[in-house]
Design goal:
By secondary structure, the protein is an alpha/beta fold. The protein has a single domain, classed as 3-Layer(aba) Sandwich (Rossmann fold). It contains five helices and five strands, in the order H-E-H-E-H-E-E-H-E-H. A hairpin with a 5-residue loop joins strand 3 and strand 4. The longest helix is centred in the first third of the chain and has 14 residues.
Amino acid sequence: MKKTIDSICNTVLRGKYKFVLISGNGGAGKSTFAKILQEKLVLAGKTVSIISTDDYMKDKAYRKNNFITYNDKSGKPKTAYIASTFPEAYNYQSLDKAIHSQNTDIIIVEGIGVALILDALKTHIKFLCK
């Protein structure tokens, strides 16, 4: 993971990037990865904020019936919220407001399904580049 973080950090520092998007399965380490990347970028002199898309999912009533059960790598049953990968599952007005309230050099956006909702982010969020 260190080589990956160093590579991303160097790429961000060389370019004029405002956003770093991190997506992956539940429990894959997205939040941890984001925090480590944030620390490295701060040490390099950048101000960095992290936004988790999980915080902008619609209310529990909307999500209630969108769970599946599956077996993890060890064969243990797990429950996952499948609608997190659907664009309709997010409150884009609140996410847009959160993004615009950040006064940092770089914004890291992390969460389940970030890659899958990218088109919706482009449509609903007022900017993706500064």
